[in-house]
Request: fold
Amino acid sequence: MRDEAAKRVELVFSLFDANGNGVLDSDDFDLMTGRVLEAATASDDGAKDAVRAAFRRYWTTLSTELDANGDGVISVEEFRPFVLDPERFGPTITEFAEALSALGDPDGDGLIERPLFVSLMRAIGFEEANIHALFDAFGPDADDRVTVATWAVGIKEYYAPDLAGIPGDRLVTARAV
Reply:
């Protein structure tokens, strides 16, 4: 696993530990889902349902694959190797990437405006300066928008253990405002 990928995994774990108890559990995913949906007020019920299902699948996949002792929680040690395994986690990430990026396009034009992108990413817990750096790395158009497909690919790349120098690396690097 590349250093960059390891840093991305550590950040994702810390963000998904929404209740701050040091492990991932079902409550974390409920909290995260609620925060993201709160930021997506203009999205339709279908997009919201898709994100709800994607977060639920994310947790279900983690708990099914990793919770060998049945204690209902996932430690960072259990999380690290699994989440970057495309064979085991790829379909879950694809569903999550497609649902989250579509949530950012409530008008259905295939484009995500920066303010909603920032709101959704802040709801997940990313730092605002890093969110803007990521959005800029996606190459927004003259109207400050990126495509849904660009964001979906960016999410999938974020979980790739062999990639470095990707837009998502900007989320783990402190940026000046």
